[in-house]
Please model this.
Amino acid sequence: MKKLLLSVFAFASAIIANAQCTDLIISEYVEGTSNNKALEIFNPTPNAISLNNNYRLVRYNNGTGAAAGEANAQAMVNLGNPTIQSGQTYVIVIDKRDANQPCPGNECAVDSALQAKADVFLCPDYNISYAMYFNGNDAVSLQKTSNGGTSWQYVDIFGMIGDPAMVSGTAWSDAFPYDGSAGAWWTVNQTLVRKPTVMSGVTSNPTPYFIVTTEWDSLPVNTYSGLGSHTCNCPTASVNDIDNQVSVKVFPNPTNSGTFNVTATEVIETVEVYNVMGQKVISEKGNNNDKKLRLETLKLTSGVYFVKVSFENNKSTVVKLSVQ
Model:
């Protein structure tokens, strides 16, 4: 598992995503040759998430509906109950590592390159790890419970649950009607990576069609190089996590006086203020060799802003400001 690193600019521009980046998503889907299959789960939230038996994977085989698929739910208890830190991934692979098994074949070993990316190997018994035996025409959902498993809600859905075209179809495709009858197949012999702009899961079944190209990028079969890290526009770090390089004070904070002051331990070159959309709303140059600057907020509406204070040698510090 690797931490997603965000620059100060990326954080400032992505902070608006907080309303979307609220739960886990399926960030990568590997449907390769033989048993080379994997799912990558990504935490786009600012906080760590413990699976703690509250999440499960469900596969909907060959166009089956919700009831049929969920009868074979794969509970996350079998994934070791890990804690996925903010900006980190969790890679799930079937435990087929016996290099002596002939290929092709049902017991053929997972590629060594894919084995190296796994965070957990699931029991290879089909009846136990039913969810991980998808083959291109199966929908998969990530679900969450808050009441001990009495009821479950969709956190993310890959594919279309209950798609009758998949009963005899092979894969979802990139041309209308997206059922494999036209265009190129996308969900078989492919590695799919969630686009960085996707900041929350699909929580409603995408009827009447699963248009795979809107949220996923396609890579060639048996591509595993990106597993273990994911790029997302979600702000997966708080302001306090930014590596601020110079001590800065902003006061009064909150401010309702129409002005605020910035003081620093080094000479201020510029002060920039960004809104939660990542748009620059104020930019002021420092006063000669001064370590303080006074700025007006009369044109700003009430809300949260981010003050970026820049110094020589490309050093900078970001401080959150509340305008009332």
About this structure: Residues 1-17, 237-243 have pLDDT under 50 and may be disordered. The chain is about 5% helix and 30% strand.
